[in-house]
Design brief:
It is built from 6 helices and no strands. Helix content is 66%, strand content 0%. It starts with a helix and ends with a helix.
């Protein structure tokens, strides 16, 4: 890991937490490669984060995000963080995505 001060500094410079997550991920090494992420798995994790409630919900959410970030490869961390923060920056307005999902 990197310190919170380093992350805050990088965020101030980049202005995009997703980019900071991706850059942090490239410098992180693991002993064993985690299994590849799947759309179903990410959706399941997002739902678990959304449903978490109660006294330890903050820790549960943090742990779920941490597990997802460890499993990320290449640019996945950038998009996981952007999705969690609601800032996908893909040129689509939120309303467009909602309409597409409704169809």
């Amino acid at each position: 890991g990197r310190s919170a001060a380093q992350l805050k500094s990088d965020f101030a410079a980049a202005g995009d937490l997703g980019v900071v997550a991706q850059a942090s991920k490239t410098s992180q090494r693991t002993m064993f490669a985690p299994p590849p992420m799947t759309v179903r798995g990410v959706y399941k994790d997002f739902c678990a984060i959304a449903r978490a409630a109660g006294g330890r919900s903050q820790n549960k959410k943090k742990d779920a995000v941490q597990r997802m970030l460890v499993a990320c490869r290449e640019s996945e961390a950038r998009f996981v963080i952007r999705a969690l923060s609601g800032k996908l920056s893909i040129g689509l307005g939120e309303q467009t995505v909602v309409i597409a999902l409704a169809q």
